[in-house]
Amino acid sequence: MSANVSTPLLQTIEPDDPTDEHIPLSGNINASSAPKPPVVLTPGGRASAPMATNPGDAESGIAGIFRQSAHPLVLFCLFLFRISAITVYILCGFFTSNFVLSTVVVVVLLAMDFWNCRNVAGRTLVGLRYWNQVDEDGESYWVFESRDPSRPPNPVDSRMFWIALYTFPLLWLALLIVSFLKFNLSFVPIVVLALVFNVTNAIGFTYADRDAKQKWANNLSSGWSIGGISGQLLTGVVKNSVGRVFGS
Q1: Which range in 44-58, 88-102, 163-177, 215-229 is most confidently predicted, on average pLDDT?
Q2: Is 79 exposed, middle or buried (0-12, 13-18, 19+ CB in 10 A)?
Q3: Which of 21, 106, 127, 179 has the lowest tally of Cβ within 10 angstroms?
Q4: Using CA atoms, how far apart are residues 8 and 48, in angstroms rounded to an integer?
Q5: Which family does it belong to (predicted)?
Q6: What whole-number distance in Å separates Cα of residue 77 and Cα of residue 117?
Q7: Sign of CA dihedral 154, 159, 162, 163
Q8: Can you give the residue ranges of every domain in the chain?
Q9: Spatial separation of the C-alpha atoms in residues 21 and 78, rounded to whole Å
Q10: pLDDT tens-digit map of 216-232
Q11: DSSP string, 8-54
């Protein structure tokens, strides 16, 4: 016991096994290895389609529009009547030579589109409606109806409605120019009627939207809240000239 105490501590620690310095290292960092062929990843059947980077890409296309729509049937009917009228007008000469039958079909489709856009699509998709009224003094003015601002329209329905409202009058205007260039004057009255219907709806809903926004801004600034289950009647006066041209 005393010998162990007197022995220095460093002498009691055994050294590690000596390494053989003559044994060469097995690895060589500087050694150049043969180039390996690149790895090519080939996607399978499910990964062939590009992945969506945002929700807009995931819900693109016609099917995505109808999936996001709050009223897909109303949106479908809006474009159905409008596309049908212009398609029948363009292709009627290929299927029948009866001018009267073609005219009747196109006019009926235009009337259905006018009524549907004014009374159903506009009220359902964007919460707007308009009509022309004559008071007891014989003065003509437009009445605009708007939805309660606490219930905003679906953004997809609203965007598609305004696209349809402004695009198809331009298409009918282009067809009118083509009719004049081809000297096909027999179809000019149909195109003019289509322009009257489409432009009337475009102007009416533009005024209704502008009037509704102005009323909402005034009500918010004055602290008066707009209520009502069926919406609030927002009335804007468009005097005799416009009322008589676009009146109903």
Answers
A1: 163-177
A2: middle
A3: 21
A4: 75
A5: Belongs to the TVP23 family.
A6: 9
A7: negative
A8: 61-219
A9: 90
A10: 777 766 654 444 434 44
A11: -HHHHSPPPPPP-TTSPPS--TTPPPPPPPPP-----STTSSPPPSS
